[in-house]
Amino acid sequence: MKPELTLHERTLKLTRYPVRKNETLQAWDAADEYLINHTQEMELDPKRPILIMNDSFGALSCWFSQNCKVTSVTDSFIAKKGSIANLEANQLPHVKIVDCLADLPDNPQLVLLKLPKNNRLLTWQLQQLCNLLPKDCKVIGAAKAKDIHTSTLKLFEKFLGETKTSLAVKKARLVFCEPDSALAKPLPAPQQWDVPEHNLTMTNHANVFSSDSLDIGARLLLDNIPQDGKYTEIIDLGCGNGIIGLKAAQLNPHANVTCVDESYMAVASCKANAKLNLETPEQLTAMVANCLEDVQHNSADLILCNPPFHQQAAITDHIAWQMFCDSKQVLKGKGQLIVIGNRHLGYDEKLSRLFGNVSVIAQNNKFVVYQSGK
User: Fold this and answer.
1) Coil, strand or helix at 163
2) Which of residues 13 and 262 earns the better pLDDT score?
3) CA distances for 231 relative to 22, 90, 227, angstroms
């Protein structure tokens, strides 16, 4: 048996995306290494595709692209950009990268599944695979050992087939599953629920935050969206299912509203919700992007933002900081940024440092709504 190697020892140059000054988080984990080491001696057919699902920044895509026909499946625009950047940096062959709602290639021989944090997405992907996989396809899941619970294995058993696990190595564990076509069922429709106090009906795909109810942070922000004819270009940054942007569109019917998120499922949900809730759905545009890096500077009057404080499994405030910096560039002169966050996150300090001003326009015992002007 070949000795176990780390990705450092495999001479791959891998970075996270976007690249940041003094970045210390690596672009792979022990589960990636475990998958690679486990599959070293597998005989793979170069003509049959392998599926890599939820590859964080392309570590698996880079490794397997050297000898295999790879399709990478992700719900993350940032993960896609990271994979492309790392493939190019290592001068490796092209990998087909598709989102979770896209059709998958026929007759795959191997599926490498990095387990997502969201069990709704895991269930969706297992059902998607059960409808697709031939009997001889091997499915290997991977995650930190602490994230593989009995309930996780039950999901595999219920939606894909007979399941076993490996021993833990470097606090990571593998999950082995035999596809059983008898378990195949039509994919479920997106979750739908009502917000009667705002006269909205929301649709959520599997990987969208707060899948069946309005979270308390969004509820406070909804009550503090400006209604003013002077706002003609409004952005909902980190839009999720688009509920903030939808309400902004209803309150400001002459404004163009752009919803931005890095999740393909979020943007698909947002587009569906515009058709469900707006008299003129064309008033709202939804786009997949890394914060506002692709949005024209000095183009928005108002930006509404509910920043996430994690990227993949890492808890971090750099996403909020990037959102605030991008917002300052994209806002017109005298444009306004309205942000909601948990009290303990201290966004007021960041906003004051960046904009030179910040005020509190609403708060409760858990959340604060801040406003800064350019």
Assistant:
1) strand
2) 262
3) 38, 46, 8
